[in-house]
Amino acid sequence: MLSISNNIAEGFERGSTQETLNFIYIARGTAGETRSMYHFLHQAPGFEELRPELPNLIGRAEGISRQIRGWADSLQNTDIRGQKYLTDKSRRIDEQRRAREEFLAELEQIRNRGKI
């Protein structure tokens, strides 16, 4: 399971969304390999003492795989290209967008309070 987080970290450190996405898919493949190993251990002789824990571990690996897939889906649908493409201008635009969203959320809260 350590390989999963290492792959995600490596992809993130490369600084682009596409490279992060590539390594996320590698991490998801590693989660699949982990599940496969757990299934193998469930059948293999000599690992009887681990068998009660294996269904839980398999379930956790499946959950991690689903989470990774969700992250991949969100990255595939983003306009953000990655850290190494950020400029002062793109940072300012992002800050302005966030400030606008916060302002609109505050206005919505004020409007909703008036309806109570």
Structure description:
The chain is an all-alpha fold and 116 residues long. It has 2 domains: 2-80, Up-down Bundle (Methane Monooxygenase Hydroxylase, Chain G, domain 1), CATH 1.20.58; 86-116. Helices cover 77% and strands 0% of the residues. The chain is built from 4 helices and no strands. The protein has helices at 2-13, 17-43, 54-76, 88-114. Helix 1 packs antiparallel against helix 2 (17-43) and helix 2 (17-43) runs antiparallel to helix 3. The longest helix is centred in the N-terminal third of the chain and has 27 residues, at 17-43. It is elongated, with a radius of gyration of 21 Å. The mean pLDDT is 88.
The CATH topology of the largest domain is Methane Monooxygenase Hydroxylase, Chain G, domain 1
- Our Rg estimate from Cα atoms comes to 21 Å
Helical stretch tally: 4
* Strand segment count: 0
The CATH architecture of the largest domain can be named as Up-down Bundle
Molecular shape: elongated
Largest sheet: none
Distance between the amino and carboxyl termini = 50 Å
Summarize the amount of helix as a percent range: over 70%
